[in-house]
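Query structure, 369 tokens:
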């Protein structure tokens, strides 16, 4: 064992630690070179004042209650264990894995390609990031996004930790979410973009999404895919969902718990399609752009307030769907099954009705379709 209960300063020199079992160093300072060899574990409790380079060739280099200082070439394993929130301003490269524990804030883009293991709160700040080649494995805690001017994260997300999109952040997810996950929090005025025009990108969380006032969820995929995350309204009166992709997103979440609702969500379908399945969400308004399609495929009785736009509206399945106001919708409507009920206002565009349509205007209204 190699243990130093003192501060070691490297002023241009080289410290080569070859540990077969374990060892500790209280503090490391200076501008020199630190090398970790052999299969053992070596712990540096405090490297805040070390701005030199570190190379981990074998075993595990563990940083204790403080953040690391300089850049690290990691071809084995590194562990951070910050009891308090700390910003790491260096860059980790190499093929090794990094185990993040405690509170760690990233100020630079990390380029290592080994696994990212998170057991605490790992936050990506402006200028920071993780490599798309590093698979994220969440054991516990949160992966937090805190970049307002746009951050694209393309790594695969696995494991059980939460995702937290902090207030005013703008994040694009292009990797596949294959973990069971827990919660995703979309805070005030945060935007989450699913995909960037391809066939990947996801946010299907086991517990669901908690959304705050001003939260925005945007889809941009070219394939047909299911969005299964239940959505819980935490606060506020304004939330938006936008479909920009050429594919179709199917909302298949469960609304049977009574809390899962989105009455305050305004939906815009600019391209492709959006399909609303049984007991998924209750929208306040839907605007369908030219060439886009909104499909309601429900066996239940559900409703929405306003339908606008110039695209295509399709009603499938045996349920009843009520549109209270379609005065500003000039697109085409097809009713294949069930009942499409228009509320207190008149319908706009033409209707191909192969099932049942109901108009219920409390005031006189002219139907011009």
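Result returned for the query:
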């Amino acid at each position: 064992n190699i243990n130093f209960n003192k501060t070691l300063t490297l002023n241009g020199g080289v410290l080569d630690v070859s540990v077969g079992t374990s060892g500790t160093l209280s503090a490391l300072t200076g501008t020199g070179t630190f090398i970790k060899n052999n299969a053992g574990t070596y712990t540096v409790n405090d490297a805040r004042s070390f701005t030199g380079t570190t190379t981990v060739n074998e075993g595990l280099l563990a940083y204790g209650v403080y953040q690391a200082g300089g850049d690290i070439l990691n071809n084995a394993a590194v562990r951070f264990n910050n009891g308090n929130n700390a910003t790491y301003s260096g860059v980790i490269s190499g093929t090794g894995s990094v185990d993040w524990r405690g509170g760690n804030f990233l100020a630079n883009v990390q380029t290592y390609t080994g696994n990212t293991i998170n057991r605490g709160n790992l936050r990506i700040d402006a200028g920071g990031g993780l490599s798309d080649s590093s698979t994220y494995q969440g054991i516990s805690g949160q992966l937090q996004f805190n970049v307002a001017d746009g951050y694209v994260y393309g790594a695969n997300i696995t494991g059980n930790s939460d995702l937290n999109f902090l207030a005013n952040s703008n994040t694009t997810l292009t990797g596949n979410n294959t973990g069971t996950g827990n919660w995703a929090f979309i805070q005030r005025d945060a935007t989450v973009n699913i995909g960037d025009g391809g066939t990947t990108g996801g946010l299907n969380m086991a517990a669901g999404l908690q959304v705050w006032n001003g939260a925005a969820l945007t889809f941009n995929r070219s394939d047909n895919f299911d969005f299964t995350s239940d959505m819980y309204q935490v606060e506020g009166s304004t939330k938006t969902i936008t479909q920009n992709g050429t594919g179709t997103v199917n909302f298949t979440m469960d609304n049977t718990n009574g809390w899962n609702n989105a009455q305050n969500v305004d939906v815009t379908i600019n391209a492709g399609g959006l399909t609303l399945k049984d007991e998924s969400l209750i929208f306040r308004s839907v605007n369908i752009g030219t060439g886009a399609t909104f499909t309601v495929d429900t066996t239940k009785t559900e409703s929405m307030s306003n339908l606008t736009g110039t695209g295509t509206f399709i009603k499938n399945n045996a349920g009843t769907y009520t549109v209270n106001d379609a005065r500003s919708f000039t697109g085409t409507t097809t009713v294949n099954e069930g009942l499409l009920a228009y509320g207190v206002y008149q319908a706009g565009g033409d209707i191909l009705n192969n099932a049942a349509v109901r108009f219920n205007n409390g005031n006189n209204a002219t139907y011009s379709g």
